[in-house]
Amino acid sequence: MQAILNFFIRYSPVIYFLLVLGFLVGLQRFIQARRERREAVYGLEQEIANRHAARAITALSLVAFIFLGEFVLTVILAPNLPASLQFVTPTINPLITPTDTFSPAQLALLQTATIGPTPTVAASGCIPGQISITSPKPGDELQGKITIQGTANIPNFAFFKYEYAPAGAGTWFTIEAGRTAIQDGNLGIWDTSASDIPPGDYQLRLVVVDNQGNELPACIVPVRIKAP
């Protein structure tokens, strides 16, 4: 269903052009059928002309119906859809991903986070003024609920999300997402005291996606979660 919506939204100019072209062809056939009806002498000729007119009317009605549907979708419905539904993206849907429920395999992966020296104390992939996490800073020790601050503001912005993963792991867990661009402000809250997040070394990353579904390189900050 999402793929169909994306198709009709993304290619709406082409669809409108084809609908207008189809309408003009149908209108021409209807006018031609009316001319045939006026010029018909015999009953059979009149019947054929009537059939041609009926087919033209059916085609025009179908084109008008599709045009109305495309108009409602692109002008009324599309602006109110969540950004993550408007554009296909290879990542998980950040607006519907539960933030506190994980599968047994995910919980097992989280348990691999070990307490020890933070392997990296420098952020990576950040773009000042566009994609950055200013707090927490690389190497910070976190405990309880923390406020994540930074910037998620790119040309053609669609949405952002911030995620975490145990240090050295490749599986990321979405914490929260937003559809409003942020410039040097609060991105959201991360409750590091959740029972399914054991103490250890983690990576916190900020991902920003544009309205074409392109996911830009993430800003990644290494942090450590302390035991309560």
List keywords for this structure.
single chain; 228 residues; alpha+beta; Immunoglobulin-like; five-stranded mixed beta sheet; three-stranded antiparallel beta sheet; 26% strand
Summarize the SSE layout with pairings.
Elements: H1 2-10, H2 12-39, H3 43-77, H4 83-86, H5 104-110, E1 131-135, E2 141-142, E3 145-152, E4 157-166, E5 173-178, E6 182-191, E7 200-210, E8 219-225
Parallel strand pairs: 2-8
Antiparallel strand pairs: 1-3, 3-6, 4-5, 4-7, 7-8
Short description:
Helix content is 36%, strand content 26%. The protein has five helices and eight strands, in the order αααααββββββββ. The chain has helices at residues 2-10, 12-39, 43-77, 83-86, 104-110, and strands spanning 131-135, 141-142, 145-152, 157-166, 173-178, 182-191, 200-210, 219-225.
The CATH class of the largest domain, by name, is: Mainly Beta
CA-based shape: rod-shaped
Q: Give the name of the CATH architecture of the largest domain.
A: Sandwich
Examine the coordinates and then state which fold CATH places here, giving the name of the CATH topology of the largest domain: Immunoglobulin-like
Portion in strands: 25-35%
N- to C-terminal distance: 45 Å
Structural class computed from helices and strand pairing:
alpha+beta
CATH superfamily annotation of the largest domain: Immunoglobulins
Give the H and E element order: HHHHHEEEEEEEE
The unreliable regions are: 83-94, 96-100
| Spatial arrangement of strands, main beta sheet | 2-8-7-4-5
Report the biggest beta sheet as strand number plus sense, adding barrel if it closes: 5 strands, mixed
Number of domains: 2
Q: Can you count the helices?
A: 5
Instruction: Please give the radius of gyration in angstroms.
Output: 28 Å
Mean pLDDT score: 80
